[in-house]
Amino acid sequence: MSQDRSYSFEFFPTKTDAGHEKLLATARTLASYNPEFFSCTYGAGGSTRDRTINTVLQLEKEVHVPAAPHLSCVGDSKADLRSLLTQYREAGIKRIVALRGDLPSGMGMASGELRYANDLVTFIREETGDHFHIEVAAYPEMHPQARNFEDDLKNFVRKANAGANSAITQYFFNADSYFHFVERVQKLGVEIPIVPGIMPITNYSKLARFSDACGAEIPRWVRKQLEAYGDDSASIQAFGEQVITEMCERLLHGGAPGLHFYTLNQAEPSLAVWNNLKLSAQTA
Ligand code: FAD
Q: Residue 219 domain-assigned?
């Protein structure tokens, strides 16, 4: 790929055959935009283990886009993780998104042997050397369980120092939080690319619920406007598209090294933003 910024799309593995077919159809559509990679989430504790593996292998071998499995360490033993790394390596996978993960409620306390994502990055490097390009998560608005912002920055630096090659952020709706985070970690000596994670806005109630859980702040003016649209999904989508496009323009203009779209397995919302940004021209 000739572009110097990294554009990528994230999927989640589905439970049904119909959902899986839809995911593949979405991936085929997005493949024609020449992304750097696709990624596929992993249910912490191994709840999606087989589905994540199958999805990643299909994206790589059948849709012909480099695919990166997410891998989380809470709830998985070192032996589980080692076996996954071996499978991925043997299948020619070259990139991994390394996370601590969050166990689904009801699965009890974390029981893995590795506690934090920096431990997982160290483990992957010990087991597989430089084979994988390792992505880690970054939180411009602070991870919700962090003691404070400074602590969270230092914990991010641990992941970079453990051998991460680049990072993808939690989604946010305030470009300043991203620029501030990047500036702060750069002052702490981190130079890896930090790619903004972009969540298209399509449904207000789901977004509000999810944002509360992951600590992403929806600015009051955006929230109030979305609330006012009520059930008018066409207006929500048009407004959401405008807000996200303008934020992405600022991010790219300000030097962001790419964009990672949380597609939720749908092509259209991400592509609407992509087309507004005229990114196709960059990949031509
Ligand atoms: P860590 O970096 O380990 O941080 C977790 C918390 O512990 C933070 O508060 C941090 O400040 C603190 N901390 C970190 N290291 C230390 C240390 N050494 N000592 C003390 N405190 C420390 N979840 C899934 O389950 N599956 C997925 O596929 C998935 N994909 C994601 C993709 C992206 C791009 C992002 C941004 C998140 C994803 N998540 C996923 C969610 C993620 O797993 C959660 O946010 C989780 O709570 C933290 O994961 P982490 O890798 O950032 O953890």
A: no
Sign of CA dihedral 270, 272, 277, 278: positive
Catalytic residue ranges = 10
Answer yes or no: is 21 within a domain.
Answer: yes
pLDDT tens per residue, range 32-86:
999 999 999 999 888 899 999 999 999 999 999 999 999 999 999 999 999 999 9
For residue 134, the CA-to-ligand 1 centroid distance in Å is: 14
Whose C-alpha lies nearest to ligand 1, atom 23?
A: 101
Measured from the Cα of 71, ligand 1's closest atom is 28
CATH number at residue 89: 3.20.20.220
In a domain, residue 225? The reply is no
Ligand 1 closest atom vs CA 146: 9
Q: Which residue's alpha carbon is at the smallest distance from atom 28 of ligand 1?
A: 41
Number of domains observed in the structure of the chain? 1
146 C-alpha to center of ligand 1: Å?
Answer: 10
Write the pLDDT tens digit of every residue in 173-209. 999 999 999 999 999 999 999 999 999 999 999 999 9
Distance between Cα 112 and ligand 1 center (Å): 14
Domain span at 253: 6-203+241-276
The mean pLDDT of 84-95, rounded to a whole number, is: 98
